[in-house]
Amino acid sequence: MYVEQAMGGKHRTLSRELGLDEDGVGQWLRLNTAPQLELLLRMCHRFGTSLLYFLTEENIVVDPAKMNAPMSKDSSLTSKRAPRLFYVESARTALEEVLAGEEHPPPSVRQVAKRLGVGDTNLRRQFPELCRSVSARYLAYRTARAKEAKQQIRDEVRQAVLTVHAQGMYPNGGRVAALLRTPGTIRHPEALATYYQTLRELGWDS
User: Fold this and answer.
1) In this structure, are residues 124 and 140 in contact, taking their beta carbons and an 8 Å threshold?
2) CA distance readout (Å), 197 to 149, 164, 177, 193
3) Sign of the C-alpha dihedral, residues 115, 120, 126, 131?
4) Spatial distance between the Cα atoms of 100 and 96, rounded to a whole number of angstroms
5) Looking at per-residue confidence, does 81 or 55 come out higher?
6) Is residue 150 situated within a structural domain?
7) Do the Cβ atoms of 199 and 206 come closer than 8 Å?
8) Is residue 39 part of a domain?
9) What does the angle CA 27 – CA 34 – CA 53 come to, to the nearest 5 degrees?
């Protein structure tokens, strides 16, 4: 889609800009070979997009105003610095898109780093503030999920005790556990606390 929209379907033009043989990009299009991360980042820089968007967006619309000029051979950027430039731009954009988006569940810094093909330690060192924000969002999600899980356990145990009680039987641990989706849950601290509390409410001698 990028080749069609941004390069007028001329994949050889993009191949030359990336320093490949004339049919280099054509081989990618035919799925004969796959581009390396450095070349993917160079393409993203050329098209003015992030690596995350490039890899995940289905309905791509190329904005000519955001495209960057191809790097010339006499560019002041050395071959060692160029990949770093592309990495920095794409990594920053990926982190910002995570914070601005509504991805559910929100990814951790490690997951974002894996998508980019880099180490999360380097990502945290390069973008400490953005990574702290991504981590805080991920931690808030995990905390909320943990609270929901505990409440679900309490609700399930309470309902099981009430069900056994309604049948005219003493809600011992075995009978209650048999009604749980995972019988072993009855040993969970939240489950035990709810179990004994419900017994007291029903007037059973716990």
Assistant:
1) no
2) 19, 15, 16, 6
3) positive
4) 6
5) 55
6) yes
7) yes
8) no
9) 110
**Residues with Cβ within 8 Å of residue 20, at least 6 apart in sequence:** 39
Give the pTM: 0.53
For residues 143-159, one letter each, b for 16 or more C-beta atoms within 10 angstroms of the residue's C-beta and e for the rest, the string is: eeeeeeeeeebbebbbe
User: In terms of residue numbers, what domain contains 153?
Assistant: 146-202
What average pLDDT score do residues 78-105 get?
72
Cα–Cα distance for residue pair 97/54, rounded to 1 Å: 12
Taking alpha carbons only, the member of 7, 94, 97, 99 closest to residue 46 is 7
Which amino acid, one-letter code, is at 203?
G
* Domain-embedded: residue 192: yes
Mean pLDDT of 72-76: 46
Residue 6 burial (C-beta neighbours within 10 Å; 0-12, 13-18, 19+): buried
One-letter amino acid of 31: L
21 located within any domain: no
Lowest mean pLDDT among 114-123, 143-152, 164-173: 114-123
- Rounded Cα distance between 141 and 104, Å, is 9
Residues 117-136 have a mean pLDDT of 88
Alpha helix locations (H) across the chain? 2-6, 11-17, 24-29, 37-47, 51-56, 81-100, 109-116, 120-126, 128-166, 173-178, 189-202
Cα–Cα distance, 49 to 134 (Å, whole number): 20
Q: What is the pLDDT of residue 79?
A: 45
What is the domain count for the chain? Answer: 1
